[in-house]
Amino acid sequence: MPYFSLVFWVVLIIVFIVAEALTVQLTAIWFAAGALAAFVVALINPDAYLIQILVFVAVSAITLAITRPLAKKLTSKTIQPTNADRYIGKEVLVTEEINNRRSTGAVQASGVIWTARSIDDIIIPPEAVVVVERIDGVKLMVRTK
């Protein structure tokens, strides 16, 4: 029975490594490190179950606390705001008739000409003032005031 703990920790190491490989989100690697540390303790003293569990919990918690901020920073997908976002909610001048069916339309925003489309799917004449609702690719999506 003393080898039960060795087998138990090897199985846990494998389970955590497989879980990590399947998720690729750095969610189980810390527990694999804890299981590996507990396995080493089990090699030294196979009957010290409580110590093995404490080592597993402690090493998992320590590796999690030390590496999680770095892992989170490396895996986070932050949206980089651009200066184009400043147009959202602003009033702009239509320079070319906006007609979604014909795929035409342009507006001038801060001296820059943008392709524009109506979110209401209505035709907007030149010289009208519209409000930018959102940016869709390289087009400003606008609505009438």
| Class by SSE composition | alpha+beta
Radius of gyration: 30 Å
How many domains? The number is: 2
The proportion of strand residues reads 15-25%
Give the distance, in angstroms, between the N- and C-terminal Cα atoms. 79 Å
Structure description:
The chain is an alpha+beta fold and 145 residues long. It has 2 domains: 4-75, no CATH class; 83-144, Nucleic acid-binding proteins (OB fold (Dihydrolipoamide Acetyltransferase, E2P), Beta Barrel), CATH 2.40.50. It is built from 3 helices and 5 strands; from the N terminus they run αααβββββ. It has helices at residues 4-23, 29-44, 49-75; strands at 91-99, 104-109, 112-118, 129-136, 139-144. The protein has a 5-stranded mixed beta barrel. A hairpin with a 2-residue loop joins β4 (129-136) and β5. α2 packs antiparallel against α3. The radius of gyration is 30 Å and the shape is rod-shaped. The N and C termini lie far apart (79 Å). The relative contact order is 0.11. The mean pLDDT is 89.
